[in-house]
Design a protein that fits this description.
By secondary structure, the chain is α+β, with helices and mostly antiparallel strands. It has four domains: about 140 residues, 2-Layer Sandwich (Beta Polymerase, domain 2), CATH 3.30.460.10; about 70 residues, Hydrophobic Seed Protein; about 170 residues, Orthogonal Bundle (Hypothetical protein af1432), CATH 1.10.3210; about 45 residues, no CATH class. Helices cover about 50% and strands about 10% of the residues. It contains 23 helices and eleven strands. The strands form three sheets. It has a seven-stranded mixed β-sheet with strand order 3-4-5-2-1-8-9. The chain has a two-stranded antiparallel ribbon with strand order 6-7. Strand 4 and strand 5 form a beta hairpin. Helix 7 runs antiparallel to helix 10. The N and C termini lie far apart (about 75 Å). The mean pLDDT is about 95. Belongs to the tRNA nucleotidyltransferase/poly(A) polymerase family. Keywords: ATP-binding, Magnesium, Metal-binding, Nucleotide-binding, Nucleotidyltransferase, RNA repair, RNA-binding, Transferase, tRNA processing. This is CCA tRNA nucleotidyltransferase.
Length: about 450
Amino acid sequence: MELMEQCSPLLQRVLTYLHDKKAKVYLVGGCVRDHLLGIRPKDFDIEVYGMREADLFAALKQFGECDLVGKQFGIYKLFKLPEADFALPRREVLIGSKHRDFAIEVDPWLSEKEACRRRDFTMNAILYDPFTKSYVDPYDGRKDIQAGIIRAVDPHTFSEDPLRVYRLAQFTARTGFKVEEATRRLCSQIVADGRLKSLSKERIREEYTKLMLAKKPSLGLVLMQEVGMLHPLLEALIHTHQRPDYHPEGSAWIHTLLVVDEASQVKHLTSNPLGFMLSALLHDVGKPETTDDFGHAIGHEVIGEKRARQFMRAIYGQKKLENYVAMNVYCHLKLMVYATSSIRDKTYLKFLALINGKTTLNDLYYLTMCDARGCQTDVQHSLQALDRFMHDYPSRLGSTAPQPLVNGSDVMALGVQPGPQVKALLQEAYDLQLGGHQRSGILKVLKRRLEDGTE
Protein backbone atom coordinates (compact mmCIF):
# COMPACT_ATOMS: atom_id res chain seq x y z
CA MET A 1 0.00 0.00 0.00
CA GLU A 2 1.30 3.44 -0.94
CA LEU A 3 2.27 5.62 2.05
CA MET A 4 -0.29 8.35 1.33
CA GLU A 5 -3.04 5.72 1.45
CA GLN A 6 -1.99 4.83 4.99
CA CYS A 7 -2.78 8.37 6.14
CA SER A 8 -6.27 9.07 7.47
CA PRO A 9 -8.72 10.77 5.07
CA LEU A 10 -8.42 14.02 7.04
CA LEU A 11 -4.62 13.97 6.91
CA GLN A 12 -4.77 13.33 3.17
CA ARG A 13 -7.02 16.39 2.77
CA VAL A 14 -4.64 18.55 4.81
CA LEU A 15 -1.62 17.43 2.78
CA THR A 16 -3.47 18.09 -0.47
CA TYR A 17 -4.52 21.56 0.74
CA LEU A 18 -0.91 22.47 1.59
CA HIS A 19 0.23 21.12 -1.77
CA ASP A 20 -2.40 23.20 -3.56
CA LYS A 21 -1.02 26.24 -1.70
CA LYS A 22 2.25 25.62 -3.62
CA ALA A 23 4.10 24.25 -0.60
CA LYS A 24 6.41 21.30 -1.03
CA VAL A 25 5.05 18.66 1.34
CA TYR A 26 7.01 15.65 2.54
CA LEU A 27 6.32 12.75 4.85
CA VAL A 28 9.56 12.31 6.79
CA GLY A 29 11.35 10.32 9.47
CA GLY A 30 9.87 7.31 11.20
CA CYS A 31 6.76 6.90 9.05
CA VAL A 32 8.89 6.63 5.90
CA ARG A 33 11.34 4.26 7.58
CA ASP A 34 8.53 2.03 8.88
CA HIS A 35 6.84 1.99 5.48
CA LEU A 36 10.08 0.84 3.85
CA LEU A 37 10.41 -1.86 6.51
CA GLY A 38 6.89 -3.11 5.78
CA ILE A 39 5.49 -1.78 9.06
CA ARG A 40 2.28 0.25 9.05
CA PRO A 41 3.12 3.69 10.52
CA LYS A 42 1.22 4.85 13.60
CA ASP A 43 2.48 8.44 13.57
CA PHE A 44 3.28 10.82 10.75
CA ASP A 45 5.83 13.65 10.63
CA ILE A 46 5.22 16.19 7.88
CA GLU A 47 7.81 18.72 6.77
CA VAL A 48 6.52 21.67 4.76
CA TYR A 49 8.93 23.59 2.50
CA GLY A 50 8.35 26.95 0.83
CA MET A 51 5.70 28.24 3.25
CA ARG A 52 6.14 30.78 6.04
CA GLU A 53 5.23 29.90 9.63
CA ALA A 54 2.23 32.22 9.73
CA ASP A 55 0.93 30.79 6.45
CA LEU A 56 1.35 27.20 7.67
CA PHE A 57 -0.52 28.03 10.87
CA ALA A 58 -3.33 29.72 8.94
CA ALA A 59 -3.59 26.79 6.53
CA LEU A 60 -3.82 24.23 9.32
CA LYS A 61 -6.48 26.28 11.12
CA GLN A 62 -8.75 25.73 8.13
CA PHE A 63 -9.17 22.18 9.44
CA GLY A 64 -9.82 22.91 13.12
CA GLU A 65 -8.10 23.95 16.30
CA CYS A 66 -4.34 24.13 15.89
CA ASP A 67 -1.47 25.06 18.17
CA LEU A 68 2.30 25.28 18.31
CA VAL A 69 3.01 22.41 20.73
CA GLY A 70 6.74 21.95 20.26
CA LYS A 71 7.72 25.58 20.59
CA GLN A 72 11.41 24.80 20.81
CA PHE A 73 11.33 22.88 17.54
CA GLY A 74 8.49 24.69 15.76
CA ILE A 75 6.06 21.76 15.69
CA TYR A 76 2.38 22.38 14.93
CA LYS A 77 -0.45 20.08 15.88
CA LEU A 78 -4.00 19.81 14.60
CA PHE A 79 -6.04 18.56 17.53
CA LYS A 80 -8.17 16.46 15.16
CA LEU A 81 -4.97 14.71 13.97
CA PRO A 82 -3.13 13.55 17.10
CA GLU A 83 -1.05 11.17 15.00
CA ALA A 84 0.49 13.95 12.87
CA ASP A 85 3.15 16.60 13.55
CA PHE A 86 3.69 19.47 11.10
CA ALA A 87 6.94 21.41 10.94
CA LEU A 88 8.98 23.65 8.70
CA PRO A 89 12.58 22.75 7.84
CA ARG A 90 15.04 23.94 10.45
CA ARG A 91 18.64 24.08 11.58
CA GLU A 92 19.59 23.11 15.12
CA VAL A 93 22.67 24.64 16.74
CA LEU A 94 23.99 23.35 20.06
CA ILE A 95 24.37 26.23 22.53
CA GLY A 96 24.83 24.37 25.84
CA SER A 97 25.73 21.04 27.40
CA LYS A 98 22.23 19.64 27.92
CA HIS A 99 20.10 17.48 25.64
CA ARG A 100 17.66 20.31 24.86
CA ASP A 101 20.21 23.14 24.64
CA PHE A 102 19.63 23.90 20.96
CA ALA A 103 18.97 27.15 19.16
CA ILE A 104 16.40 26.54 16.43
CA GLU A 105 16.49 28.41 13.15
CA VAL A 106 13.40 27.80 11.01
CA ASP A 107 14.05 28.28 7.30
CA PRO A 108 11.23 27.40 4.86
CA TRP A 109 13.68 27.57 1.94
CA LEU A 110 16.36 25.34 3.43
CA SER A 111 17.51 22.56 1.12
CA GLU A 112 16.26 19.06 1.83
CA LYS A 113 19.82 17.82 2.31
CA GLU A 114 20.65 20.51 4.86
CA ALA A 115 17.38 19.93 6.72
CA CYS A 116 18.08 16.18 6.90
CA ARG A 117 21.59 16.79 8.20
CA ARG A 118 20.25 17.35 11.73
CA ARG A 119 18.60 13.91 11.82
CA ASP A 120 20.15 11.02 13.73
CA PHE A 121 20.38 8.03 11.38
CA THR A 122 20.27 7.72 7.60
CA MET A 123 17.20 5.48 7.80
CA ASN A 124 15.39 8.39 9.50
CA ALA A 125 16.62 10.98 6.99
CA ILE A 126 14.43 10.00 4.04
CA LEU A 127 11.69 12.28 2.69
CA TYR A 128 8.73 11.05 0.67
CA ASP A 129 6.71 13.25 -1.67
CA PRO A 130 3.17 11.77 -1.66
CA PHE A 131 2.21 13.71 -4.79
CA THR A 132 5.08 12.67 -7.07
CA LYS A 133 5.42 9.35 -5.22
CA SER A 134 9.17 9.91 -5.09
CA TYR A 135 11.85 9.85 -2.39
CA VAL A 136 14.42 12.46 -1.48
CA ASP A 137 17.23 10.48 0.11
CA PRO A 138 20.37 12.64 0.38
CA TYR A 139 22.20 10.29 2.77
CA ASP A 140 21.31 6.94 1.13
CA GLY A 141 19.04 5.80 3.92
CA ARG A 142 17.21 3.35 1.66
CA LYS A 143 20.48 1.59 0.83
CA ASP A 144 21.26 1.26 4.53
CA ILE A 145 17.79 -0.13 5.21
CA GLN A 146 18.29 -2.67 2.43
CA ALA A 147 21.68 -3.62 3.84
CA GLY A 148 20.39 -3.71 7.43
CA ILE A 149 22.78 -1.02 8.69
CA ILE A 150 22.25 1.80 11.19
CA ARG A 151 24.51 4.72 10.32
CA ALA A 152 24.77 8.26 11.70
CA VAL A 153 23.85 10.97 9.19
CA ASP A 154 26.60 13.38 10.18
CA PRO A 155 29.28 12.80 12.86
CA HIS A 156 29.21 16.42 14.05
CA THR A 157 25.45 16.87 14.39
CA PHE A 158 25.00 13.34 15.73
CA SER A 159 27.38 13.93 18.63
CA GLU A 160 25.55 17.09 19.68
CA ASP A 161 22.66 15.07 21.15
CA PRO A 162 23.69 12.34 23.65
CA LEU A 163 20.16 10.88 23.69
CA ARG A 164 21.00 9.38 20.31
CA VAL A 165 23.10 6.72 22.02
CA TYR A 166 19.95 5.40 23.70
CA ARG A 167 18.07 5.75 20.42
CA LEU A 168 20.71 3.65 18.70
CA ALA A 169 20.24 0.91 21.30
CA GLN A 170 16.47 0.78 20.91
CA PHE A 171 16.61 0.92 17.11
CA THR A 172 19.09 -1.96 17.14
CA ALA A 173 16.66 -3.98 19.26
CA ARG A 174 13.67 -3.05 17.10
CA THR A 175 15.18 -3.57 13.65
CA GLY A 176 17.87 -6.20 14.22
CA PHE A 177 20.18 -4.05 12.07
CA LYS A 178 23.97 -3.96 12.51
CA VAL A 179 25.57 -0.74 13.71
CA GLU A 180 28.10 0.87 11.38
CA GLU A 181 31.50 0.91 13.10
CA ALA A 182 32.08 4.68 12.92
CA THR A 183 28.65 5.24 14.48
CA ARG A 184 29.51 2.80 17.27
CA ARG A 185 32.74 4.70 17.95
CA LEU A 186 30.85 8.00 18.09
CA CYS A 187 28.55 6.54 20.74
CA SER A 188 31.45 5.14 22.75
CA GLN A 189 33.04 8.59 22.78
CA ILE A 190 29.82 10.29 23.90
CA VAL A 191 29.60 7.82 26.79
CA ALA A 192 33.30 8.17 27.67
CA ASP A 193 32.93 11.96 27.77
CA GLY A 194 30.21 11.57 30.42
CA ARG A 195 27.59 13.32 28.32
CA LEU A 196 24.76 10.91 29.16
CA LYS A 197 24.62 12.56 32.58
CA SER A 198 22.95 15.59 31.01
CA LEU A 199 19.89 13.56 29.98
CA SER A 200 16.66 13.71 31.96
CA LYS A 201 15.16 10.59 33.51
CA GLU A 202 12.08 11.12 31.34
CA ARG A 203 14.00 10.92 28.05
CA ILE A 204 16.05 7.92 29.15
CA ARG A 205 12.86 6.18 30.29
CA GLU A 206 11.23 6.68 26.87
CA GLU A 207 14.12 5.04 25.04
CA TYR A 208 14.50 2.24 27.61
CA THR A 209 10.82 1.45 27.20
CA LYS A 210 11.12 1.20 23.41
CA LEU A 211 14.15 -1.06 23.81
CA MET A 212 12.46 -3.38 26.29
CA LEU A 213 9.32 -3.68 24.15
CA ALA A 214 11.33 -4.35 20.99
CA LYS A 215 11.42 -7.57 19.00
CA LYS A 216 14.89 -8.59 20.24
CA PRO A 217 15.93 -6.59 23.32
CA SER A 218 19.22 -8.46 23.69
CA LEU A 219 20.64 -6.69 20.63
CA GLY A 220 20.10 -3.26 22.17
CA LEU A 221 21.44 -4.41 25.54
CA VAL A 222 24.59 -5.80 23.92
CA LEU A 223 25.08 -2.48 22.11
CA MET A 224 24.77 -0.68 25.45
CA GLN A 225 27.39 -3.05 26.86
CA GLU A 226 29.75 -2.47 23.93
CA VAL A 227 29.66 1.33 24.19
CA GLY A 228 29.97 1.28 27.99
CA MET A 229 26.55 2.57 29.06
CA LEU A 230 25.05 -0.33 30.99
CA HIS A 231 23.61 0.42 34.40
CA PRO A 232 26.09 -0.81 37.08
CA LEU A 233 23.60 -3.45 38.29
CA LEU A 234 23.53 -4.94 34.79
CA GLU A 235 27.26 -4.49 34.26
CA ALA A 236 27.89 -6.64 37.35
CA LEU A 237 26.07 -9.57 35.73
CA ILE A 238 28.77 -9.78 33.04
CA HIS A 239 31.31 -10.81 35.66
CA THR A 240 29.03 -13.21 37.56
CA HIS A 241 29.66 -16.89 36.84
CA GLN A 242 27.02 -19.58 37.23
CA ARG A 243 26.96 -23.31 37.86
CA PRO A 244 27.85 -24.90 34.50
CA ASP A 245 25.54 -27.87 35.11
CA TYR A 246 22.55 -25.51 35.40
CA HIS A 247 23.80 -22.69 33.17
CA PRO A 248 26.13 -23.93 30.43
CA GLU A 249 25.30 -20.73 28.53
CA GLY A 250 27.83 -18.87 30.70
CA SER A 251 27.59 -15.74 32.83
CA ALA A 252 24.49 -14.33 34.48
CA TRP A 253 24.55 -11.63 31.79
CA ILE A 254 24.39 -14.11 28.91
CA HIS A 255 21.56 -15.89 30.71
CA THR A 256 19.72 -12.57 31.14
CA LEU A 257 20.05 -11.81 27.43
CA LEU A 258 18.53 -15.18 26.58
CA VAL A 259 15.70 -14.67 29.08
CA VAL A 260 14.71 -11.20 27.80
CA ASP A 261 14.49 -12.52 24.24
CA GLU A 262 12.30 -15.39 25.44
CA ALA A 263 10.17 -12.88 27.37
CA SER A 264 9.70 -10.69 24.30
CA GLN A 265 7.86 -13.59 22.63
CA VAL A 266 5.22 -13.88 25.38
CA LYS A 267 4.96 -10.36 26.83
CA HIS A 268 1.65 -9.79 25.04
CA LEU A 269 0.15 -12.60 27.16
CA THR A 270 0.89 -10.80 30.44
CA SER A 271 -0.97 -8.12 32.38
CA ASN A 272 1.90 -5.62 32.12
CA PRO A 273 4.16 -6.13 29.08
CA LEU A 274 6.67 -3.42 30.02
CA GLY A 275 6.84 -4.50 33.66
CA PHE A 276 7.18 -8.10 32.55
CA MET A 277 10.13 -7.29 30.30
CA LEU A 278 11.82 -5.29 33.05
CA SER A 279 11.27 -8.24 35.40
CA ALA A 280 13.02 -10.51 32.92
CA LEU A 281 15.89 -8.02 32.65
CA LEU A 282 16.30 -7.73 36.43
CA HIS A 283 15.37 -11.21 37.64
CA ASP A 284 18.97 -12.13 38.52
CA VAL A 285 20.40 -8.76 39.63
CA GLY A 286 20.92 -10.22 43.09
CA LYS A 287 23.40 -12.82 41.84
CA PRO A 288 26.57 -10.66 41.82
CA GLU A 289 26.29 -10.19 45.59
CA THR A 290 25.30 -13.76 46.47
CA THR A 291 27.25 -16.03 44.11
CA ASP A 292 29.93 -18.16 45.77
CA ASP A 293 32.99 -19.81 44.22
CA PHE A 294 30.92 -22.78 43.12
CA GLY A 295 28.28 -20.70 41.35
CA HIS A 296 25.59 -21.07 44.01
CA ALA A 297 23.56 -17.88 44.47
CA ILE A 298 21.51 -18.65 47.55
CA GLY A 299 19.11 -15.85 48.42
CA HIS A 300 19.71 -13.91 45.22
CA GLU A 301 15.98 -13.32 44.84
CA VAL A 302 15.91 -11.48 48.19
CA ILE A 303 18.84 -9.19 47.35
CA GLY A 304 17.51 -8.98 43.79
CA GLU A 305 14.21 -7.51 44.98
CA LYS A 306 16.11 -4.65 46.64
CA ARG A 307 18.40 -4.06 43.66
CA ALA A 308 15.47 -4.16 41.25
CA ARG A 309 13.84 -1.37 43.26
CA GLN A 310 17.05 0.67 42.99
CA PHE A 311 17.07 0.26 39.22
CA MET A 312 13.39 1.09 38.85
CA ARG A 313 13.74 4.24 40.96
CA ALA A 314 16.75 5.37 38.94
CA ILE A 315 15.17 4.82 35.51
CA TYR A 316 11.39 4.88 35.95
CA GLY A 317 10.33 6.40 39.26
CA GLN A 318 6.86 4.83 39.09
CA LYS A 319 5.86 3.11 42.34
CA LYS A 320 3.23 0.74 40.96
CA LEU A 321 5.56 -0.45 38.21
CA GLU A 322 8.39 -0.77 40.74
CA ASN A 323 6.23 -2.93 43.03
CA TYR A 324 5.23 -5.18 40.12
CA VAL A 325 8.82 -5.72 39.01
CA ALA A 326 10.17 -6.14 42.54
CA MET A 327 7.57 -8.80 43.39
CA ASN A 328 8.31 -10.71 40.19
CA VAL A 329 12.04 -10.67 40.96
CA TYR A 330 11.43 -11.79 44.55
CA CYS A 331 9.15 -14.64 43.45
CA HIS A 332 10.81 -15.74 40.22
CA LEU A 333 12.08 -19.02 41.74
CA LYS A 334 9.00 -19.97 43.73
CA LEU A 335 6.75 -21.50 41.07
CA MET A 336 9.42 -23.88 39.81
CA VAL A 337 10.24 -24.92 43.39
CA TYR A 338 6.54 -25.53 44.04
CA ALA A 339 6.11 -27.38 40.75
CA THR A 340 8.99 -29.78 41.38
CA SER A 341 8.08 -30.52 45.00
CA SER A 342 4.94 -31.30 46.97
CA ILE A 343 3.36 -28.29 48.67
CA ARG A 344 0.29 -27.96 50.85
CA ASP A 345 -2.73 -26.07 49.62
CA LYS A 346 -2.17 -23.52 52.38
CA THR A 347 1.32 -22.78 51.03
CA TYR A 348 -0.15 -22.09 47.61
CA LEU A 349 -2.87 -19.84 49.03
CA LYS A 350 -0.34 -17.92 51.13
CA PHE A 351 1.69 -17.40 47.97
CA LEU A 352 -1.37 -15.95 46.22
CA ALA A 353 -1.86 -13.63 49.20
CA LEU A 354 1.79 -12.55 48.97
CA ILE A 355 1.54 -11.49 45.32
CA ASN A 356 -2.01 -10.11 45.59
CA GLY A 357 -2.21 -6.60 44.14
CA LYS A 358 1.43 -6.64 43.02
CA THR A 359 1.63 -9.18 40.20
CA THR A 360 -0.34 -12.14 38.87
CA LEU A 361 0.11 -15.89 38.90
CA ASN A 362 -0.10 -15.90 35.11
CA ASP A 363 2.73 -13.37 34.76
CA LEU A 364 4.94 -15.32 37.16
CA TYR A 365 4.24 -18.48 35.19
CA TYR A 366 5.55 -16.86 32.01
CA LEU A 367 8.56 -15.37 33.82
CA THR A 368 9.39 -18.79 35.28
CA MET A 369 9.05 -20.38 31.86
CA CYS A 370 11.34 -17.79 30.24
CA ASP A 371 13.90 -18.17 33.03
CA ALA A 372 13.99 -21.92 32.41
CA ARG A 373 14.23 -21.54 28.64
CA GLY A 374 17.12 -19.11 29.12
CA CYS A 375 19.25 -22.00 30.43
CA GLN A 376 20.92 -23.92 27.63
CA THR A 377 20.08 -27.27 29.21
CA ASP A 378 17.23 -29.72 28.74
CA VAL A 379 14.44 -28.12 30.77
CA GLN A 380 11.56 -30.03 29.22
CA HIS A 381 10.94 -32.11 32.36
CA SER A 382 10.86 -28.99 34.55
CA LEU A 383 8.52 -27.16 32.18
CA GLN A 384 6.16 -30.13 32.10
CA ALA A 385 6.09 -30.12 35.91
CA LEU A 386 5.38 -26.38 35.84
CA ASP A 387 2.47 -26.87 33.45
CA ARG A 388 1.02 -29.65 35.63
CA PHE A 389 1.26 -27.39 38.68
CA MET A 390 -0.45 -24.53 36.83
CA HIS A 391 -3.27 -26.84 35.82
CA ASP A 392 -3.76 -28.53 39.19
CA TYR A 393 -3.61 -25.80 41.84
CA PRO A 394 -5.46 -22.95 40.09
CA SER A 395 -8.21 -25.32 38.92
CA ARG A 396 -8.81 -26.43 42.53
CA LEU A 397 -7.99 -23.29 44.50
CA GLY A 398 -8.18 -20.41 42.05
CA SER A 399 -5.46 -18.12 40.74
CA THR A 400 -6.09 -15.12 43.00
CA ALA A 401 -5.99 -14.76 46.77
CA PRO A 402 -9.35 -15.45 48.49
CA GLN A 403 -11.15 -12.50 50.04
CA PRO A 404 -10.85 -12.38 53.86
CA LEU A 405 -13.83 -13.87 55.68
CA VAL A 406 -13.20 -11.70 58.74
CA ASN A 407 -12.78 -7.91 58.64
CA GLY A 408 -11.85 -5.17 61.08
CA SER A 409 -15.44 -4.62 62.20
CA ASP A 410 -15.69 -8.29 63.14
CA VAL A 411 -12.57 -8.05 65.28
CA MET A 412 -13.68 -4.82 67.00
CA ALA A 413 -17.06 -6.44 67.71
CA LEU A 414 -15.10 -8.80 69.97
CA GLY A 415 -14.15 -5.81 72.11
CA VAL A 416 -10.79 -4.93 70.54
CA GLN A 417 -9.95 -1.23 70.29
CA PRO A 418 -8.65 0.19 67.00
CA GLY A 419 -4.88 -0.18 66.75
CA PRO A 420 -2.08 -2.69 66.11
CA GLN A 421 -3.98 -5.51 67.86
CA VAL A 422 -6.69 -5.40 65.20
CA LYS A 423 -4.10 -5.80 62.45
CA ALA A 424 -2.44 -8.73 64.23
CA LEU A 425 -5.76 -10.50 64.76
CA LEU A 426 -6.78 -9.95 61.15
CA GLN A 427 -3.54 -11.55 59.99
CA GLU A 428 -4.15 -14.53 62.27
CA ALA A 429 -7.72 -14.77 60.99
CA TYR A 430 -6.53 -14.82 57.39
CA ASP A 431 -3.90 -17.48 58.17
CA LEU A 432 -6.63 -19.61 59.73
CA GLN A 433 -8.79 -19.08 56.65
CA LEU A 434 -5.97 -20.20 54.35
CA GLY A 435 -5.62 -23.26 56.53
CA GLY A 436 -9.22 -24.23 55.81
CA HIS A 437 -11.18 -22.68 58.71
CA GLN A 438 -14.62 -21.20 58.07
CA ARG A 439 -15.74 -17.78 59.32
CA SER A 440 -17.51 -19.06 62.44
CA GLY A 441 -14.53 -21.18 63.44
CA ILE A 442 -12.12 -18.30 62.93
CA LEU A 443 -14.17 -15.99 65.16
CA LYS A 444 -14.30 -18.67 67.86
CA VAL A 445 -10.50 -18.99 67.81
CA LEU A 446 -10.04 -15.21 68.04
CA LYS A 447 -12.55 -14.95 70.88
CA ARG A 448 -10.75 -17.69 72.78
CA ARG A 449 -7.41 -15.91 72.27
CA LEU A 450 -8.83 -12.73 73.76
CA GLU A 451 -10.46 -14.54 76.68
CA ASP A 452 -7.23 -16.42 77.45
CA GLY A 453 -5.24 -13.20 77.17
CA THR A 454 -2.89 -14.71 74.58
CA GLU A 455 -3.42 -11.83 72.17
